[in-house]
Amino acid sequence: MAKLKLDLHNIYNRGDEIDAELNRIVQEAIDRKIELVEIIPGKGSGQLKKKVLRFLNQGHIKKLYKRVEKDDKNFGRIFIHFKF
């Protein structure tokens, strides 16, 4: 199974770029029919992870994927499972 990966470490403090990258990776997954996207907000204080989860919970984004999985073995990782 193909997978896309987005590491947000380099842009953790630039909100507009984070949103743009999240939009880009979601659109790329849809365009290429990739069923799994791994997003790495990192561990840190948890604020970036919360931002990613808020982004994914928006109505227009939420309808695009099947489910979000928070990695129970690695706090700094989120998986998005798409429905195709």
Our estimate of the beta-strand percent is 25-35%
Most strands sheet: 4 strands, mixed
Low-confidence segments: none
Could you tell me the mean pLDDT? 92
Rg calc: 12 Å
H/E element string? Answer: EHEHHEE
Report how far the terminal alpha carbons are from each other. 13 Å
- Strand line-up across the major sheet: 1-2-4-3
Describe the structure.
The chain has three helices and four strands; from the N terminus they run E-H-E-H-H-E-E. Helix content is 38%, strand content 25%. A four-stranded mixed sheet has the order 1-2-4-3, covered by helices on one side. The two termini are 13 Å apart. It is α+β, with helices and mostly antiparallel strands and 84 residues long. It has one domain. The model has no long low-confidence stretch (mean pLDDT 92).
Strand and helix layout:
Blueprint: E1 3-7, H1 15-32, E2 36-40, H2 47-56, H3 59-62, E3 65-70, E4 78-82
Parallel strand pairs: 1-2
Antiparallel strand pairs: 2-4, 3-4
What would a concise description of this structure say?
This protein has 84 residues and is α+β, with helices and mostly antiparallel strands.
Supply the key terms:
84 residues, alpha+beta, 4 strands
